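Re: the 321-residue chain
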Amino acid sequence: MEYRRLGRTGLKVSAICLGTMQFGWTTDEPTAHAIMNRAFEAGCNFFDTADIYSRWVDGNDGGVSEEIIGAWLADGHVRRQDVVIATKVRGPMGDGPNDQGLSRQHILESVAASLDRLQTDYIDLYQVHFPDDETPLEETMTALNDLVRAGMVRYIGCSNYPAWLLAKSLWISDVKNLTRFDSLQPHYSLVYRAEFERELQPLCLDQGLGVIPYSPLAGGFLTGKYRRDTPMPDTPRADGVRRRYMNEQGFSAVDKLEEIGRAYDATIAQTAIAWVLANTAVTAAIIGANSLAQLEDTMKGAEIKLSDKEKAALDKVTDWK
């Protein structure tokens, strides 16, 4: 496994980050623990979650994924210092008016709850999940700064931020001498490029932010299971894939991934992961897994090193400029 520095920090994380959104939803705890054990054995030291994961499953108030990770950390199979745990704050964790957002109150309450569920006394990377238009940026950044100063959090990052808001957040941190965001978690894949590449990518490169894309397989579309004239399952997820990616450009991208993957004896999914990791702005690709077989398959994408020519050929298929 390759390890890369998270932005301009000295923290080294694996090129594959295990996303745990499905834990407690489509993946039960024993299976989740088996997946994390195998990922760690394969060199993955980076695990991503969020406090809201599984909130809408069986009427619970969230935190299930964090609890599963916490139990895994507590069982003693890994040393805490050998893994990098990333979680997030922002989404609704209750029905009260202050049970969501990026206010100082919600952040302080949420980090305490996350630490409890994770059964740890610090969080390696604490990320704001998405923007909060109702809270001043300075309030949010000051609260996050205080968490770092208190040792509860070691690094901070953001997710789903537009470039202007990320730039403003960095400016406030610099002007006020506050801890800066060290990472961005954007939506990014071969068939969803423009949102990141247009403005966020040059900003991250200029400011030294690590980039941890989610959905690098485009909701499963870049696994090759959705092809031209293939019957689609009647599910909300499949409907989303149909509307967003099932067009001639999307199918051409899958075809090109398959073609280039043959040279590496690689699957379409593995080649799609390799394409994301070939971007010099990217630190790690977040992958999910509901089974050991799925994990084993997808993680192999980190072993493939595309040539400049191969990456350029894939870029051309989904060129947005």
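The chain has a mean pLDDT of 94.
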